[in-house]
Amino acid sequence: MPDLPGLHSGAGRFAPSPSGELHLGNLRTAILAWLFARSTGRRFLLRIEDLDRARAGAEAEQLRDLALIGLDWDEAPIRQSDRVARYREALDRLRGQGRLYECFCTRRDIAEAASAPHQAPGRYPGTCRSLSETERARKRSERPAAWRLRSDVAEFRIHDRQHGEFRGPVDDFVLLRNDGVTAYNLAVVVDDALQGVDQVVRGDDLLAAAPGQAYLASLLGYPVPGYAHVPLALNPAGQRLAKRDGAVTLADVGRDAALGLIFGSLGLPPALPAALAEFDPARLPREAWLVRPAPGHGTNNVGAGR
Ligand code: GLU
């Protein structure tokens, strides 16, 4: 088992993908992750998840905005693109345990197999799980393989601070994509463990991914972190808030107005030290935060608060 620095002290984290400016919903999740960490005496870390959707300049904008709203962090942010050797090491260990197999399926193959009777939707149907060496050799000459986890559970249970005991399905998910890029589900598990993160606070769109990640952590001999999946911000149409919804970034709304909206939606005073003193996870809203962006500037919160 590799070194797990800082486990004794524990850490929380925020892990944005540098695909664009953070919007009010992202900033609110970052604030919540900071409040959860600081209110429990943990370190707070940032991780830039740039394996996939990176846009030049976005990382600097995001760090600027996180500092502007008053967050602080305890170490220089790490970047996933600098950590590929660590992901390889984890893959090698899983391969040594017989936990990896090559998958040659296209999206279409998976969709077709998954529509067969008795097949749970969204689950990898296991098409490539037991190919013979001859079949693999033939398929390798046709297309590059992705590498999947050979899972031996159908579901896994986690504990979530906001959702309680949560049991969710686990399938043979991809760990290394067929373009050679490490899959998010592997990188997040390796990074949380090696950074000593024992508290994962993030949007509840990722709740369904947590059982697979916790299972993978246990296979790698890592401690499973505690989770708190917090409600997302939605636009008035009930869809996930996005930059295209209008005035939803710190630059659009202004710092004080943004903090007023975010803390107002949480029922907390609009400044970090005061909010920290009053923070109580048991009193956080359970439902999504409805944000009504103005078409020009300024944003009216019609909040589904508490
Ligand atoms: N990078 C992911 C996102 O921005 C978050 C992943 C995580 O917190 O585990 O949605």
Named CATH architecture of the largest domain? 3-Layer(aba) Sandwich
CATH class of the largest domain: Alpha Beta
String of helices and strands: EHEHEHEHHEEEEHEHEEHHHEE
Structural class: alpha/beta
Number of domains: 2
Instruction: Compute the average pLDDT.
Output: 92
Strand content: 15-25%
General shape: globular
> Low-confidence runs (pLDDT<50, min 5 residues)?
1-8, 297-306
GO molecular function, one term: glutamate-tRNA ligase activity
Binding site for ATP: 243
Region (Disordered): 116-135
Cofactor: Zn(2+)
Notes on the structure:
With 306 residues, this protein is of the alpha/beta class. It folds into two domains: 11-79 and 231-305, HUPs (Rossmann fold, 3-Layer(aba) Sandwich); 84-187, Glutamyl-tRNA Synthetase, domain 3. Helix content is 33%, strand content 19%. It has helices at 24-39, 58-68, 84-96, 107-114, 133-140, 184-194, 210-219, 250-253, 255-266, 272-278; strands spanning 11-14, 43-48, 78-79, 100-103, 146-149, 155-160, 164-169, 174-176, 197-203, 226-230, 233-234, 289-293, 299-301. The strands form four sheets. A five-stranded parallel beta sheet has the order 3-2-1-9-10. Strands 4-5-8 form a three-stranded antiparallel beta sheet. A three-stranded mixed beta sheet has the order 11-12-13. Helix 1 (24-39) crosses helix 10 (272-278) and helix 6 crosses helix 7. Glutamic acid binds at residues 15-17, 49, 188, 202, 206.
Relevant terms:
33% helix; metal-binding; aminoacyl-trna synthetase; 306 residues; binds glutamic acid; 2 domains; disordered C terminus; nucleotide-binding; Glutamyl-tRNA Synthetase, domain 3; single chain; Rossmann fold; 10 helices; 5-stranded parallel beta sheet; 3-stranded antiparallel beta sheet; ATP-binding; disordered N terminus; 13 strands; ligase; alpha/beta
